[in-house]
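Onboarding guide, step 5: your first structure request.
Type a short instruction followed by the sequence, for example:

Predict the 3D structure of this protein.
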Amino acid sequence: MICQVIDFRTTLGPEPMQAMSGAPHEYGGPAVAHLLAADALLAEVIRRTAPLPARTAGPVYDELVRAVLYQQLAGPAAAAIERRLRALFGGDYPRPHELIRASDDVLRGSGLSRQKVSYLRDLAAHATAGHIDEHLRDLEDASVIAAVTAVRGLGRWSADMLLIFGLGRPDVLPVGDFGIRKAMQQVYGLAALPAPVEMERIAAPWRPFRSTATQYLWRVVDPRAP
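The system replies with structure tokens like these:
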């Protein structure tokens, strides 16, 4: 997820946020309860943020089509392409056979780049072969990552997004996500964007609910994050 950074605190100095005192957090659930107790700085983020919205996951294939559309684009730009692409196929995501048959000109008319058209065609081929479908829901995280990253243009970030939003896996930390790196830098008062090893260290107390923590951190840099 590529996010526009906003000022979450009153100032953006290098010092970490101070934990907030006051009434207990009103949002329920074991994940939030664990995070509030495990990390005072993350607890501050949670207390300042509205509850995470409910999101109904679509089919695995649809979630990955969406991941391709949103790669390396700001949310509004990606959403506009998504609307135009779906309009070409009766308001739904194109089925694998439709992507394979559609001409490049038709697909690029939605605003897709040539590169993303090639990614979608490869995704459609993997879906047609049975490598990308609902059976991924029954696999361990590592096997899901292997299946997703076998598709051209889908890397670890896309696999992590599927795990969090499409499959509802509770303990995913997308170390390659710029928004999470920027949020960690801001919340924990880091001099630079954290490397994956530092992100893993910071997130260790969040286990086994790192996916929930991740979704709150996105809201530090983009309050409209999913």
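Each response can be followed by summary notes, for example: Residues 185 and 192 are 6 Å apart (CA to CA).
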